[in-house]
Every structure is written in structure tokens, then in C-alpha cells.
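CORE FACILITY INTAKE
Project code: CF-77B
Contact: R.S. (postdoc)
Sample description: multi-component assembly, two entities in total
Requested service: structural model of the whole complex
Turnaround: standard
Below are the sequence entries exactly as provided by the requester. Do not edit them.
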Amino acid sequence: MSANYLLITPLMLPLLGAITCVFLWRHVNLQTIVVACVQLIFIGITGLMLRQVLTEGIQVTHIGGWPAPYGIALVADILTALLLLTTSIAGLAVFMFSHIALDKSRKRFGYFPLFLLLQMGVSGVCLTGDIFNLYVWFEVLLICCFALIALGSKKSQLEGALKYVTINFIASGLLLTGIGVMYALYGALNMAELAQIVRSSHANVKLLALPGVFFLTGFGIKAAIFPLFFWLPASYHAPPIGISAFIAGIISKIGIYTLLRLYSLIFSVEINSAQPLLLILSGLTMAIGVIGAAAQMDFRKILSFHIISQIGYMLMGLAIYTPLAIAGSIFFVIHNMLVKTNLFLVSGVVAHRYRSFSLVRLGGVYLMHPTLSFLFLISALSLAGLPPLSGFWGKLMLAKGGLEAGNYILVGTSLGVSLITLLSMTKIWNEVFWKPRPKRIKNSVRETMSAYTLYFPVFFLLAFILVLGFFAQPVIELSQRSADQLLHSETYIKAVLYD
Amino acid sequence: MEILLPVLTGILFSVSIYFILHRHLFKLILGLILFGLATNLFLFVVGGMKRGGIAIIAQGNEVPVEPYSDPVPQALLLTAIVIGFGIQAFAIVLIRRVYQTFRSNNMDNLNNNEKI
């Protein structure tokens, strides 16, 4: 039982980077160098982790050398490694973007340390094998989100942050309550041990729905599932793009990750009773999200509402609960992390040039910046799921899984929602890129060198999106292996408790 | 006590939700604090309360002497109190900042984001 240091580095590296950044508080340029190094090493480490998990199976580290049910275990399986790799790629892109576009004062007041701590929180949530530790990592992640959303104290930001803090505080409270109930019922906090207990003939197995309700509500709020999503479009568009791209692209999917993990591991024994509820919720989440987006006239708000709709797709895989559907969910999460971050970055590039996010005030971008328009178009079509781009494969897997399981209504809803997604992407295309520039808007277009360097992170992410679309097979295989691993939880239990 | 505390937890939860739903900013602070207290108290009560010994195993024994109280919920509780304290402190500063910026105590004046 040797410690695997590779599992600790995704936590230690951002933490050390953040501490270094705090020491270099007044030297923003040095901070930038530190963060750049951390991001590059982070990608390397998560890549190595994925390779190790693929060749050697589930990796476990017992912190402090305490064996599993007593100490806290860090566990990495294929899903963890895949998500961390995607997160680190998106993180590098967002870092490059904010290095250029974010204003000096926000950088001077701790943007970089907060960003690194946020990444640490994400790694912690993905890696931990202990249910209370999961709560603690979620709080680490949230407090960084709170601070980042409020950073700069613009009116809209404070307003968004207040809503975000309140609702997430309540969600965390519900989560904690659920953990308390879980411990009271089964006397365990380690996920693997809990999974083992609920599969045994423990006296309280019938009461599993009780903590299940708390977890579904708590993580449902964090993941913005219908009808708990109203805080998301009210707060995600407020901060500048360097912040909101990462939060919008990554953080809401972390809620889905925890739902996938907990439902496959612990609540799978009563999945039959939860399934109808999850099916209805996922259908409504995607439908309401996309209808909400149709009413918006702000670039970022449309994208924010689409996050909700896509959370519905991710939940759909979990609700159908067949290997193919869960693999589809995992593929969709990876695809969506990259595409959503990229779309937010494109909106940032447009706003950097034209100084507005409003669809009414923008226009004529295609005429002046055709490259930028194509960057948007590819990401947007990928989001809507046009073949052969990445969104198509995710939706194909989900739809196929749904049809095999006989959930025709949900599959029909998801396909209809795709069509409306395409519609609202076309709306952005028409309003921002296609229509002539409104005559009464006088302010000049910013044509500086920095505006062109902003293309770089967008190109960087787009390369991954295109690879994910054109060479989908390896990633689909990985998702399928990962779904297999999730559904065969005895390997997880064995790796954590007995190896 | 064992009968009183669950009732108290319920009252705390309901009062805190009422305060959070109120449109006054100061009541939001009170609501957040009470909600944190309610969850902590819930965690404490649901972990089981026992009078008596501590869970330290005497030398030579295999198991601690019954009755002993389970130390894990208390450890969780301490962690949760600290985390809750941090978040509440942040929330209070944020709400103060909101008040300074908007010059208003009324949450209904904070819906500029919707008007674009």
C-alpha cells in the first residue's frame, strides 16, 4: 500500500502556486509566470494520471497512511482522470485569455491565487473518496467562486454574487444534512464502504432514499437542475469573461460529476425508484433551459441558459442508466466543458473589440473579423450537435442509449431541444455576426495587437474540440470504459478497501 | 433534551428559511447564520447523543467501555462550524459591500441584472 504521489500533486501544485502568488502579491508579472508554469505542469500531471489509470486500474492513496475506512482516501478512476485533464486544458486556455484581457486591478487584487485555489477545489472534489471530504472540497471551490464573482465589485457582480452565495450556502447546508443522515444510518463516510454497506443486508438499506433526497437537492442546486437553476443565469454573466468562462465551463459540471459518482456507487441500489424522477427532471431541465435562452438578448445570458439545457443532457445519461447512456453523459461532459468555455471566450473576444455583450448593440462582426466569426460558428455548431463536430457524438450516444432503453419521449425531447439550441445559436450568429453594424453605435472598434493575441486561447481550445469531433473514437472508447468502471462498483470498492 | 433538540432544529430551519426569503438585507445575514446553526445542530442530533464515557480505548482493551458517544459526528461538526463561519464572514462582508454600493436595504432594488 504505497502512496501514489501522482494523486496528491493535482491538489498540492495549485496550492503551492497560490501560496507563491500570495507572496508575490505586488508583482503581477511574476504571478503570471508562476500560474503559467502551474498550468503547464498541471496538464502534464493529469495526462500522466490518465495513462496510469488506464494501464494500472483505479489508483488509491490513503492520506497519512491511515487505511481506507478510517482515513481519507484519494481515488482516481478513468472518469476522474478524464475530467481533470479536460479541466486543466480549459484552465490553460482561460489563463491565457485572462492574462491578456483581464484588467490590471483585478489581477492586482488576487485573481491568480483565487483561480489556482479554485482549480485545487475542482481537483479535490474529483479525487476524494470520502463523502464528508467531498463537502469540504466543495466549500473550497465555492468560496473561491464567491470571491471571483465578486472580484471587482461592479454593481452587477455584487448582485450576482449575493444570489450565488445565498443559494449555494443553502445547498451546502442541505448537503451537510444529507451527510449527517448518511452517517447516522450507516456509520460510514468512506464512499467505498458506504457502497459496500448499501449492497449488504444492513438494517437501514431501505432508508437510502432519505439521504438520497438531500444529496439530489444539494447537488441539484449546485448543478442547476430544474427547478433549482434560477441562480445560474442571474450570476454567471456578471463577472468578466476571464472569470466567468472557467466558472461557467467547469463548475456546474462538477455537480453532475458528483451526481454520477454517488448515483453509480451508492444510490444505484435504489436507482429504479429514482429513475422516473431523474428522467422527468432531465427532460424539463433541457427544455426549460433552452426556452429561457430563446428570450435573452445578451451574448453571455444566452450561453448561461444553455448551460442549464446541457446539464439536462448530462443528467439524461444518468437517468437512463445504461452503460451506453452513461458513457454518452461522460463524453458530453468533456465536450461541453471545452465548448462552453470556448464560446464564453469568443464572447469575450467580441466584447473586447466592440465593448458590448448586447445582441442589439453588436453587429457586422463577420464583415470585419471573419476569422472570429468562424471560430464562433464551429463552437456553436458543435454545441448544437451538428455532425461531425463533438456535440453530435455525445448526443448520438445519449439518444441511442435512450432508444435502447425505450425512453422515446425523453429522446424526442432531447432532439427537439437540439433543434432549438441550433436556433438560438443562429440567433447569436444573425445578430452579432451577420446583421449590419447598428448605425447609432458610435464607439470605435478596438484594433490593437492584444485583440489578435486573444484569438490564441480560442484557437487552442478549438483544436481540442475539432480533435474530439473528428477523432471521437478513442474518447468514446475511454468514456465507455469509464462507464463500465462506474457501473461495476465492486472494482472501486476492492481498490479502495482491500488493495 | 433528546426530544427538545430535534424540535429546536426544526424551528431553526424554518425561521432561517423565513429570514432568507425576506427582502431585507440584514435579515438575509440572520437567515444565513441561523441556517448554518440549524444544519450544525442537525448534524449533532442525528449523530446520536449519549451521556457517559469517551471513545478512548483503555490500555489492554479491544473496545471502549459502553456507553460512549461517537466522536466522528463531533469532529464533522467542528469542521462544519469552521467552514460555515468562514462563509458567513464572507457573506457579511459581501452584503455590507452591496449595501454600500446600492445604498439600499431592499433586495427588490437588486434586480438590475434582469434588465438588459
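Facility notes:
- Chain B has one domain: 4-111.
- The longest helix of chain B spans residues 71-102.
Invoice: internal transfer
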